[in-house]
Write a structure and sequence with these properties.
Layout: E1 5-8, E2 14-18, E3 24-28, H1 31-37, E4 42-48, E5 52-56, E6 60-64, E7 67-71, E8 78-83, E9 89-93, E10 108-109
Parallel strand pairs: 3-10
Antiparallel strand pairs: 1-2, 2-5, 3-4, 4-9, 6-7, 7-8, 8-9
Length: 141
C-alpha cells in the first residue's frame, strides 16, 4: 500500500500529494528562509519530485539564483523550496502539510544564523551550514 502525504496553501487552491515517505525533515535557521516565510525558523519536508503531484491552481514561483520558491498566488502561502543544485528534490513547508504532526524534524541546519532568542533544546544534530551538500561548493546555500 502506498503512503500518500497531502498538503495545500491556506486557501486550498494549490494542493499537492506525495506518494512516498519523505527523504528529509529538518529545521532551517537561515536568513533566506526567514525572509521567505516570515518565521524565525522554518521546517521542511523533502520528497523526490517524481513522487509529487500538484492539483488545483498552479503555484507561483520566485527564483533567486539556483533557488526556486513556490507559493500560492491567491493567499500568498509559502509552499515549497527547490534548488537546481539538488535535482529531483522538493522541500515543502511542514506547515503546508495536512498532517504536520506526522513529520518530526531530525536535524537543524544553518544554526550559525539562528536568532539568539530561539531556543530549541531538542537534542537533534545541529549543522553550522546546510545539512544537504550541494555539488558546487559542498555545504553552502
Amino acid at each position: 500500500m502506498t503512503t500518500v502525504h497531502a498538503g495545500s496553501c491556506r486557501c486550498g487552491k494549490v494542493r499537492f500529494e506525495a506518494s512516498a515517505e519523505p527523504h528529509h525533515v529538518s529545521y532551517c535557521h537561515c536568513g533566506d528562509c526567514r525572509k521567505a516565510t516570515g518565521s524565525p525558523v522554518t521546517a521542511f519536508v523533502g520528497f523526490n519530485e517524481s513522487e509529487v503531484e500538484f492539483s488545483g491552481k498552479d503555484a507561483k514561483t520566485f527564483e533567486n539564483g539556483p533557488v526556486r520558491r513556490g507559493f500560492c498566488g491567491i493567499c500568498g502561502s509559502p509552499l515549497y523550496y527547490a534548488d537546481a543544485r539538488l535535482p529531483g528534490k522538493i522541500y515543502f513547508m511542514l506547515g503546508a502539510m495536512d498532517q504536520p504532526a506526522y513529520f518530526k524534524p531530525t536535524l537543524h541546519a544553518y544554526v550559525r544564523e539562528q536568532l539568539p532568542f530561539v531556543h530549541m533544546p531538542d537534542g537533534l544534530p545541529r549543522h553550522l551550514k546546510s545539512s544537504v551538500p550541494r555539488p558546487d561548493n559542498g555545504t553552502d546555500k
